[in-house]
Amino acid sequence: MLEKFFQLKAHGTNPQKELVAGITTFLTMVYIIFVNPQILSSAGMDTQAVFVTTCLIAALGSILMGIFANLPIALAPAMGLNAFFAYVVVVGMGYSWQIGMGTIFWGAVGLLLLTIFRVRYWLISNIPMSLRIGITSGIGLLIALLGLHNAGIVVANPATMVAVGDLTSIPCVLGALGFFLIVILAARGVYSAVLISMVVTTTLGILFGDVKFQGLVALPPSIAPVFGQLELAKSLDIGLAGIIFSFMLVNLFDSSGTLIGVTNKAGLTDEKGRFPRMQQALYVDSISSVSGAFMGTSSVTAFIESSSGVSVGGRTGLTAIVTGLLFLMAIFFSPLAAMVPAYAASGALIYVGVLMTADLAKVKWSDLTEAAPTFITTIMMPFSFSITEGIATGFISYCVLKVGTGRWRELNPCVVAVAALFLIKFIWVDAH
């Protein structure tokens, strides 16, 4: 039955390999079920409920990907967009988490519509690589800043804007230790580096009396505090259009890039980056995002950590299903999520920042019309504390520089349209 449905032999694999691959992928990305609740709790969401919804949507998305797309790719709430939602939209801008969750929902609906009308891949191919790198890197710096702040390594200062915190405090020491531990383990090829780091730092927090032990296993908490609580009507306010667009655009890049990257590593793509059942995979990805917002968690995306399962032989959807089932079993470990302190997750945030800025090396720095927009996009996200403003200034500066240097023919309608929409936002919406 498994052979017929997943075509294991045709993909050069077997059930044993797929099982090991699924477990490997799970161990690599399971940190999200602890980090995501910790981040979303900053927005006032119930930690225990978010833990369960994170497990459920990761299970649902991964299993659907395995069944309908037959790809070894797992899904879960995206790092970066969860921080943008909690710290920027809710804490920074003052919106309720219910309205913020509504913007995630509408962004996911937009992504689904792009998929239905088959313009998603076209949109990706028409946005310059320099801007795509700038967006990814900017989110990485923003996430890293949040990680440094959560550990107390970087604090606010009225004179210099930011300053170094108390480096001898427990959060600071354990946060830094967690980061270094992740990097050391990852450099040594340990797939579950982030999970191990969080376990070590949380355990040390318990030993130092900074964290209270609350048990290991319990019946799953109710998801009622977050399930279906999003504000759909209020989140459609024109003032939130930029945020909705940001959620859609970033998720578009993140998920599509991961799908192409992982399938390429698995040897499933052609020379144009297309892979079998591509449309089904895009549908699963989009529907999972819509479902995730309704269930009460941040934007859902394909996880690049799926490549760890591919590296040990995962080639079919059976890998994703195994990962999904493990996420489903994880709902019984909610006491662990309640124990994870902010500084235990800070190392993971800083590490993700490192990974997301890696592509800056690919920027053509000798071409200022490409380099400057990348730089502006990248630095504006942490400095303005907004992904939206970073994307906006990046697109606008790209158009200005191409026109100003007489290279306007390098612009395409997609880039011009996005830049124009953001200009309208700045001039009309924000000014009023």
Describe the structure.
The protein is globular. The chain has one domain. The protein has helices spanning 2-6, 15-29, 32-41, 47-69, 81-92, 97-116, 120-126, 129-150, 170-187, 193-207, 241-265, 278-295, 306-311, 317-329, 334-339, 342-356, 368-384, 387-404, 413-429, and strands at 75-77, 154-157, 161-164, 300-302. The model has no long low-confidence stretch (mean pLDDT 91). The protein is mostly helical. Helix 8 (129-150) packs antiparallel against helix 16 (342-356). It comes from Plesiomonas shigelloides 302-73. InterPro entries: Azg-like, Azg-like_bact_archaea, NCS2. GO terms for molecular function: adenine transmembrane transporter activity.
List the quaternary state of the chains: single chain
User: What structural class do helix, strand and pairing data support?
Assistant: mainly alpha
Q: Which percent range describes the beta-strand content? A: under 5%
Give the distance, in angstroms, between the N- and C-terminal Cα atoms. 61 Å
Q: Provide the helix percentage.
A: 55-70%
In the predicted model, the low-confidence regions spanning at least 5 consecutive residues are: none
Q: How many domains would you count in the coordinates?
A: 1
What global shape is seen? globular
Family: Belongs to the nucleobase:cation symporter-2 (NCS2) (TC 2.A.40) family. Azg-like subfamily.
GO molecular function: adenine transmembrane transporter activity
Keywords: Cell membrane, Membrane, Transmembrane, Transmembrane helix, Transport
InterPro entries: Azg-like, Azg-like_bact_archaea, NCS2
